[in-house]
Amino acid sequence: MRIDWFTFGAQIVNFLILVWLLKRFLYGPIITAMDQREKAFRDREKELAEAKLAADREAEEYRQKQQKMEHAREEQIAAAAREIDEWKREQTQLAREEIDQLRANWFRGIQLERASFIRELQQRTAHQIYRTTRQVLKELCDVSLEQQIITSFLERLDRISEVKRQQMAQSIRNDSEPILIESSMELTKETQDQIRSQISSFFAEAEARFDFQVVPALIGGIELQAAGHKIAWSLRETLEMLEEEFTRSLENAIPHDLQGNFEEVGRTT
Amino acid sequence: MSEISINPDLPLWPEGPLLVRLLNPAILFTWMVMFVLVVGSWLVTRKLESDTKISRAQNLLEVLVNMLRSQIREVSQQEPGSYLPFIGTLFLFVAMSNLMSILPGYVPPTGSLSTTAALATCVFIAVPIFGIASQGVSNYLQQYLKPSVFMLPFNIIGELSRTLALAVRLYGNMMSGSVIGMILLGFVPLFVPIVMQLFGLLTGMIQAYIFAVLAMVYIASATQVHQPDPPPDQQPGES
Prior knowledge:
The structure holds 2 protein chains of 2 kinds. Chain A is an alpha+beta fold. Chain A has helices at 5-141, 145-158, 162-174, 189-203, 236-253, 256-268, and strands at residues 179-183, 210-214, 222-226, 229-233. Chain A has a domain at 144-234: Dihydrodipicolinate Reductase, domain 2. Chain A contains 6 helices and 4 strands, in the order H-H-H-E-H-E-E-E-H-H. Chain A has a 4-stranded mixed sheet. In chain A, a hairpin with a 2-residue loop joins strand 3 (222-226) and strand 4. The radius of gyration of chain A is 61 Å and the shape is rod-shaped. Chain B is mainly α. Chain B is built from 9 helices and no strands. In chain B, helix 3 (25-45) crosses helix 5 (84-99), helix 5 (84-99) packs antiparallel against helix 9 (192-223) and helix 6 (113-135) runs parallel beside helix 9 (192-223). The model of chain B is unreliable at 1-5 and 234-239 (pLDDT under 50). Chains A and B meet through helix 1 of A and helix 3, helix 4, helix 5 and helix 6 of B.
């Protein structure tokens, strides 16, 4: 157990050289490499953190955008629903008005058709009554209907009050127009003379002029028109009663729920 | 032959020229260990990777360096930067010297009292160098006067004795392993020397660790800055 001083010194030198060499070839490069890696990790972590931050920020932005879009979509849906409701209401109103209009037109048409039908019926009925009455009178009493009508007309003339008669006579005298006698049938010469003489004597107007005209629409009637006065006899009254009765029967035949419409249309027209 | 094996300080060729006569196994195998360490390090560190994919050798060296740094940090409670080359080289040299004893014909340099004394002397010199570099000359020297000036001789004796202990501990452990191995080889030539060799490897690694850690403890005790004494009028605990 001795110390060799040369070995002692040499080993100190060897050790110091080894320290330098290892510092140069081992510790320095290894620590540098580890530091670089650690720095790379830190940089990467920092980048990741920044990327995560950016991603979070972006995600938040997208979330907000999505929420805005959701709101906008809900608002649009609500607006669309409102518009649809409004449109539906308008269309319903329009349809209702159109239906009302169509119904009114329809009822008006029906009303017109009914009036036309009644008028035509009245005409036909009048003709038929006239013809039937004429035939019955002829066969049973051997009496002319025309003659009876004229007789009735002249009797009605006679029943005019004195005051009225004077007024009419005065008017006829002042009027330059001839006395218009309208009848549904052609009057014979004798009949015309009879009427002329009777009216002239009735109004005490020997110079009175007469104008005889045939008007088929009068249907079994005769009318006197002079200076704004009118005296007539015809089947019209009878026919009007008949029409009234017929209308009542017709209305009874129409259902109750339609009668209001008829009445309403009748009011509007 | 057995004399050469257990005393690595004896010259290999006593009859040779002067320079050759000075060569002994301790120096020769020290160069060998240095060569292995330096060339091995150079081979690995010449193509280092800073990426995550690294070679196994680089990984081994990084683990080794990291372990050394963490041990230094743990023992000294300081950053290992300036201590790593010295302490790390101590550990690596002693460990490699002992580890290579598995090679046939190899005599560990640490079995030489001259080598261990040289290493202990390096520690003995490094302690005041690091201490003065850390605290300054006066602060460092004042440590020898604490707790009182009368302790100066004991502190100096303590410094010397622990250096001697460092050298002798390592030398004794390594030399004893070699001696026991040689003796057992004479008695039981098969199997038992292998077991003793394995024990020798374990002992060698432990001794390398102990040597490095003790060196670090000595340096750390010299470099730690002591807190200044509180003023006499301020009692401890007062703020």
